[in-house]
C-alpha cells in the first residue's frame, strides 16, 4: 500500500493552472442567467410584469391567472437558455441550500409529452421534506412541508435548472427555513424605519435593509485534503503539528495570488457574474491559502440568497480546479480563522443611505437618529446578537483570542464619540434658540467633515461603524447570513418603533417641536446605551473584565449563547414584531442544540478513529524500526550497547507513553459521549458534549502532534500542515 500522502504530494507537483476562457465582456456577462427586470420586460406581458414588480416592491399578491403567465415566461426564457428542469430553491435550517429538480416536460407515452410548469408549480410546491430539521414542529407522520415562491428574489438558471427562490414552511405554517423570518424582519424594518424617516422627508414610502457580506475561505488541493479524513468530513484539521513557518511573517496578506488560485478566482468570478452576484474585490487574507471574496452590497434578502448560492458555486468551481474550499471558521490551529463580515445599513426609496451623514443639519439629525437607535438596539439585545452567530465551528473564533471576542460591543470612532458626548449634554425639554443653533452648526453640522478622515477603524470590535454602515464581524464564514440579518433588522425595527412613540409623546403631550423632541429622546438613548460602546482593544483581558463589570454578556460556547434565543424577552420581541412565534423559536433552539451536539460527536469519532487508525499504527511502525535498530546495536556492542542506543531506547519509551495516553483518552472520550447521548434533553446533551467531550480533543491532539514530530517523515500518512498550507 503506497503512502497516500506522498502520492498526493506528487500529484500536486504536476498541477498547472486551469486555462480559463473568458465567456465575454464582464459587463455583458452580468446577470446573464438571472430573470431580471430587463429580461422580464422582454418575456412578459405588461400586466404580468407590473404585477410582479408590485409584488417585489409592495408585497402585493400575484393572482393565479397572472402566475400562469409569469411561469410561462420564465419557462420560455429558461428553455431558450438550455435549461431542462425547474427547482424550488430554499434554505432549510441545515444552513445550506436545497433543491428538488423536476423536468419541464413529462412524457405521457406514444411519443407525446406535456409541459409541467404552470403558475401552480411556480407558486407553491408540496415537498416531502421529513429529512430536514424541524425541531419537532412537524410530526414524522405529517412529513409535508411547503415551498412557496419569493418574488422579491429573482429566479436564476443554475446548471440546467431554473431555480426559484422559495420559503420553506411546515404544513401548519411554521417557518422551517432562514428566509421566512428574514422576510418578516425586512417587513418590520421597512414599516418602522419608514415611519421614522418621514420625520425628515415626507416622500419616503419604503426603507430597505442593505447587506454587503465579505466571504473568507481557504483553498486546499483536493488530493492533499483527501488524505485527511478530518478535513474531508469535519471541514477542519483535528490534529497536525504547527509548521515552522505559519503566518508570522504576514507575507500572505495582499501578497501575490498563486497561479492556480488566480485561475480559480477568475472562473468563479465569471460564474458569479452570470448569476448576477456583483463580485468586486479579491485579495489574499492573513493566513496562507486564505482568500476573500466580496460583492457590492445589495438589498438584504437578495444578498443572503446570493451568499448561499455563492458557497455552492464555490464548491462546484473548485472541483474543476482540483481544490476543495474550506468554509469552516477554524480549519487550522494556530492559523487565523475565517469570518464573514456582514456590512449592514438602511436605504430609503428616495435613494438615501440612512446611516450616511448628509449635507444639511436635518439630514444629519436623521443620520444620528438611525445611528443612535441602532446602537441602542444592539445594547438592548447584545446577547441575542451573539446567539445569532453561535455554532460549534464559530466557537473556535469567538472568544478564542481571535477576531472578534464573544462580547458584543459597538465601535464608533473618536469623532463620533465626541458628537455623542456633546449631544448627551443637550438640555431637557425645549431647547433655547441659541442651543439649537449651536447644535446645528457645531455638532450636527460638523458631522460630514468628520467622515473625511475616518481612518481609525478598530479591527477588534464585533459591531463597528465604518463610515456609512455598521459591520457585524462576528458572523462565521460557514453561516447563513439570514440569521444575523434577521436579528439586526428585528431589533432595530423594535427600537425605531419605540423611538417614534417616545418622540410623538413629547410632541403631542409636552408640546415640543419635532427636532427638540428628537434631541431629547436621543440624549436619553445615548445615556442608556453607553455600556455597549467600546473603543479599546477587544482582544484584551482587561476588556473581558471591564465588560463583565458593565454587565455585558460573554457567552463563550454555543450551548451557553443559544439560551438567549428562547428567553422570555426574545420571545416577546419576535412575537411583537411578527417575525417568529414561540413555537418556531423553541423548535429552532432544539435544532441548533442538536446540530451542535452532532458536530462535536462527529469530530469526537473522527479524532478517535484517526488517532487509533493512523497515528498509533504509524508510531508503532516507527517504534519497531527503532527496536530493530537497538537489537542490531546490541548485537554489535554487546553489554555496553546502551552507550550508543540510549537515545533510541528513550524514544521507544516515549512513543509507548504517548500511545498509552492516546488510548486511554480516547476511551474516556467515548464514555463521555455515551453519557451525553443518554442525557435527558437536547440542552443537557449539548452541554455535556461541550464541557465533557470537547476538552478531550486538545488532549488527544497534543499527543498525536508529539508523535508527528517524532516519527520518520517517510512513514507519516496524514498530509502535514506545512504541505496543506504552502502547496498549491
Ligand atoms: P473591509 O474589508 O475594510 O471591511 P471592504 O471594502 O472589503 O471593507 O468591504 C466593505 C463592504 O461593505 C463591501 O462588501 C460593501 O459592499 C459593503 N457596503 C458598502 N456600503 C454598504 C451599505 N450601504 N450597506 C451595506 N453594505 C455596504
Ligand atoms: Mg470587513
TrEMBL record:
Residue ranges of domain GS beta-grasp in the record: 84-173
Query: What name does the UniProt record give this protein?
Result: Glutamine synthetase
- Family of the protein in this entry: Belongs to the glutamine synthetase family.
SUPFAM superfamilies documented for this protein: Glutamine synthetase/guanido kinase
Tell me which UniProt keywords the record has, alphabetically. Answer: Ligase
**EC class name:** ligase
PROSITE patterns, per the entry: GLNA_ATP, GS_BETA_GRASP, GS_CATALYTIC
Q: Which GO molecular-function terms appear in the entry?
A: glutamine synthetase activity
Q: Report the residue ranges that make up the GS catalytic domain in this protein.
A: 178-615
Its Enzyme Commission number? 6.3.1.2
Q: Among the record's GO biological process terms, what is one?
A: glutamine biosynthetic process
- Name the source's superkingdom: Bacteria
One Pfam family hit: GSIII_N
Amino acid at each position: 500500500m503506497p503512502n497516500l500522502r506522498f502520492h498526493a504530494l506528487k500529484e500536486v507537483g504536476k498541477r498547472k493552472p486551469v486555462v480559463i476562457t473568458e465567456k465575454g465582456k464582464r459587463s455583458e456577462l452580468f446577470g446573464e442567467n438571472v430573470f431580471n427586470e430587463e429580461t422580464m420586460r422582454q418575456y412578459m406581458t405588461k400586466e404580468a410584469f407590473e404585477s410582479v414588480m408590485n409584488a417585489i416592491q409592495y408585497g402585493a399578491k400575484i393572482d393565479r391567472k397572472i402566475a400562469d403567465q409569469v411561469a410561462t415566461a420564465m419557462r420560455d426564457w429558461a428553455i431558450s437558455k438550455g435549461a431542462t428542469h425547474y427547482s424550488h430553491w430554499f434554505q432549510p435550517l441545515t444552513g445550506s441550500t436545497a433543491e428538488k429538480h423536476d423536468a419541464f416536460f413529462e412524457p405521457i407515452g406514444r411519443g407525446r409529452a406535456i409541459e409541467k410548469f404552470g403558475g401552480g408549480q411556480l407558486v407553491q410546491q408540496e415537498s416531502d421534506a421529513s429529512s430536514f430539521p424541524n425541531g419537532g414542529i412537524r410530526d414524522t407522520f405529517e412529513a409535508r412541508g411547503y415551498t412557496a415562491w419569493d418574488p422579491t428574489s429573482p429566479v436564476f438558471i443554475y446548471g440546467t435548472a431554473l431555480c426559484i427562490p422559495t420559503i420553506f414552511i411546515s404544513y401548519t405554517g411554521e417557518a422551517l427555513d432562514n428566509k421566512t423570518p428574514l422576510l418578516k424582519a425586512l417587513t418590520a424594518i421597512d414599516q418602522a424605519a419608514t415611519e421614522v424617516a418621514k420625520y425628515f422627508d415626507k416622500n419616503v414610502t419604503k426603507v430597505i435593509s442593505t447587506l454587503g457580506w465579505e466571504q473568507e475561505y481557504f483553498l486546499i488541493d483536493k488530493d492533499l485534503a483527501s488524505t485527511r479524513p478530518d478535513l474531508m468530513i469535519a471541514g477542519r484539521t483535528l490534529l497536525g503539528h504547527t509548521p515552522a513557518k505559519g503566518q508570522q511573517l504576514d507575507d500572505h496578506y495582499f501578497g501575490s495570488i498563486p497561479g492556480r488560485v488566480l485561475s480559480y478566482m477568475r472562473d468563479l468570478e465569471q460564474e458569479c457574474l452570470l448569476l448576477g452576484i456583483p463580485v468586486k474585490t479579491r485579495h489574499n487574507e492573513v493566513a496562507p491559502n486564505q482568500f476573500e471574496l466580496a460583492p457590492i452590497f445589495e438589498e438584504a434578502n437578495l444578498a443572503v440568497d446570493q451568499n448561499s448560492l455563492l458557497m455552492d458555486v464555490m464548491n462546484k468551481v473548485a472541483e474543476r480546479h482540483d481544490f476543495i474550499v474550506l468554509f469552516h471558521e477554524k480549519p487550522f490551529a494556530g492559523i487565523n480563522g475565517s469570518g464573514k463580515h456582514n456590512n449592514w445599513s438602511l436605504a430609503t426609496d428616495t435613494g438615501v443611505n440612512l446611516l450616511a451623514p448628509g449635507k444639511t443639519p436635518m439630514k444629519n439629525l436623521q443620520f444620528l437618529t438611525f445611528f443612535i437607535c441602532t446602537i441602542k438596539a444592539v445594547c438592548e439585545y447584545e446577547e441575542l446578537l451573539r446567539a445569532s452567530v453561535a455554532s460549534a465551528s464559530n466557537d473556535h473564533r469567538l472568544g478564542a483570542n481571535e477576531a472578534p471576542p464573544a462580547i458584543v460591543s459597538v465601535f464608533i470612532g473618536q469623532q463620533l464619540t465626541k458628537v455623542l458626548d456633546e449631544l448627551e449634554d443637550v438640555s431637557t425639554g425645549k431647547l433655547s434658540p441659541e442651543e439649537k443653533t449651536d447644535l446645528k452648526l457645531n455638532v450636527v453640522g460638523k458631522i460630514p467633515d468628520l467622515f473625511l478622515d475616518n481612518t481609525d477603524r478598530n479591527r477588534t470590535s464585533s459591531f463597528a461603524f465604518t463610515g456609512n454602515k455598521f459591520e457585524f464581524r462576528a458572523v462565521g464564514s460557514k453561516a447563513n447570513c439570514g440569521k444575523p440579518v434577521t436579528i439586526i433588522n428585528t431589533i432595530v425595527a423594535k427600537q425605531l418603533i419605540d423611538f417614534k412613540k417616545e418622540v410623538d409623546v413629547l410632541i403631542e403631550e409636552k408640546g415640543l417641536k419635532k427636532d427638540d423632541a428628537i434631541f431629547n429622546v436621543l440624549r436619553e438613548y445615548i445615556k442608556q446605551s453607553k455600556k455597549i460602546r467600546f473603543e479599546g482593544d477587544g482582544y484584551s483581558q482587561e476588556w473581558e473584565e471591564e465588560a463583565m463589570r458593565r454587565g455585558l454578556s460573554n457567552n463563550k460556547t454555543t450551548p451557553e449563547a443559544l439560551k438567549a434565543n428562547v428567553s422570555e424577552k426574545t420571545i416577546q420581541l419576535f412575537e411583537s414584531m411578527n417575525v417568529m412565534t414561540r413555537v418556531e423559536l423553541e423548535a429552532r433552539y432544539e435544532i441548533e442544540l442538536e446540530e451542535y451536539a452532532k458536530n462535536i460527536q462527529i469530530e469526537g469519532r473522527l479524532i478517535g478513529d484517526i488517532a487509533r487508525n493512523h497515528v498509533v499504527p504509524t508510531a508503532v511502525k516507527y517504534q519497531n524500526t527503532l527496536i530493530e535498530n537497538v537489537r542490531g546495536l546490541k548485537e554489535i556492542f554487546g553489554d555496553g550497547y546502551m552507550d550508543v542506543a540510549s537515545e533510541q531506547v528513550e524514544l521507544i519509551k516515549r512513543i509507548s507513553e504517548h500511545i498509552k495516553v492516546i488510548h486511554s483518552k480516547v476511551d474516556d472520550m467515548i464514555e463521555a459521549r455515551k453519557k451525553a447521548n443518554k442525557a435527558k434533553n437536547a440542552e443537557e446533551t449539548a452541554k455535556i458534549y461541550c464541557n465533557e467531550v470537547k476538552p478531550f480533543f486538545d488532549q488527544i491532539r497534543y499527543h498525536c502532534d508529539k508523535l508527528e514530530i517524532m516519527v520518520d517523515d517517510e512513514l507519516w500518512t496524514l498530509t502535514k500542515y506545512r504541505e496543506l498550507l504552502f502547496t498549491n
